[in-house]
Amino acid sequence: MTMTTCSAPGKIYFFGEHAVVYGEQATACAVDIRTQVTVRPDVEHSINSSLGITGLDMTKHPYVTRCIREMEPFISDGVRIDISSELPVGSGLGSSAAVTIATLFALSLQFDTGHTLDEIAVMGHDIERIVQGVASPTDTYVSTMGGVITIPARKGLALPACPIVIGYTGSFSSTRELVGNVGILKEKFPAIVEPVISTIGKLSMYGETAIERQDYHELGRLMDINHGLLDTLGVGSSELSKLVWASRHAGAWGAKTTGAGGGGCMVAITDQPDEVAEAIEIAGGQAMITRATPYGVKIE
Ligand code: MEV
């Protein structure tokens, strides 16, 4: 093989970001917004993305650098990696997991390493943990397998048929810092914050039934509640809530922050995707209309 191209999807959370860090159930869904990675054997290592061309570089390309290091025993000389992504970096849509998983899978095929998808998902999670300090397995697992999945059980749910609209605020905050702040709040007010976190886990369980029944009104309602609880945990922002409310006014069944919060993205489910996207844009966000995808990492 002269080269291998693979792609992996980003994801949204229907429920459970932050609570999943404390072992509560989360429900995440792969969306059809993908990162593509091409791997070619070369005389030395190089990584080419919108951030520039580097060699192994833990500052500019920490995830891909780690992927090459993991697979180095199988690589004879060097490898050239070309990345193109539809996912805004650091937006809470799992862009780092998508690039990590697409790179690991492309390297495993190109150099015939024999890794299974489960092993790729675990390796990807380890890389995210090393680079970010904190990371649940959600992003890397969903990006590998696709579909709608509950964490920690890794149970696959029915694929929602409804359109999904994502609103990007254009700003982002550090996941590590936001997760840390929730921890501080929990230490300070355990009797208040612990029930909030366990309620988020319960929302995910109620949501499972709504997803299986394809009851998108109920799913949306539960997502609205989860948004309020994320605000309670202090990971909201006025921009996020503005986009959430604009989506609801435009007819969304439900809308919430997705990912670590503090900026980044919100997600809405709706049967009026154009109207919701337009409302998000008018409210100052960048809108993406997408759908759940059953396809995790795959060869292009
Ligand atoms: C970040 O996308 C989601 C968090 O729950 C952290 C994690 O699960 O790794 C905040």
Short description:
The protein is of the alpha+beta class and 300 residues long.
What does this entry look like structurally?
Strands 1, 2, 3, 4, 5, 6, 7 and 12 form an 8-stranded mixed beta sheet that branches. Strands 9-10-8-11 form a 4-stranded antiparallel beta sheet. Helices cover 42% and strands 24% of the residues. The model has no long low-confidence stretch (mean pLDDT 96). Helix 3 (117-132) runs antiparallel to helix 4 (138-145). It has 2 domains: 4-157, 2-Layer Sandwich (Ribosomal Protein S5, domain 2); 164-290, GHMP kinase, C-terminal domain (Alpha-Beta Plaits), CATH 3.30.70.890. By secondary structure, the protein is of the alpha+beta class. The structure holds (R)-mevalonate. (R)-mevalonate binds next to helix 5. The site of (R)-mevalonate has 13 residues, from helix 5.
- The percentage helix is 40-55%
Q: What is the CA-CA span between the terminal residues?
A: 14 Å
Series of H and E elements: EEEEHEHHHEEEHHHHEEHEE
The average pLDDT is: 96
**Structure classification:** alpha+beta
The figure for the number of domains is 2
Q: What is the CATH top level name of the largest domain?
A: Alpha Beta
The total of beta strands comes to: 12
CATH topology of the largest domain: Ribosomal Protein S5, domain 2
Taking the sheet with the most strands, its summary is: 8 strands, mixed
Second CATH tier, the architecture of the largest domain:
2-Layer Sandwich
Alpha carbon gyration radius:
19 Å
Total count of helical runs of at least 4 residues: 9
The multimeric state of the shown protein is: single chain
Low-confidence stretches: none
Specify the overall morphology: globular
Give the bound compounds: (R)-mevalonate
Strand content: 15-25%
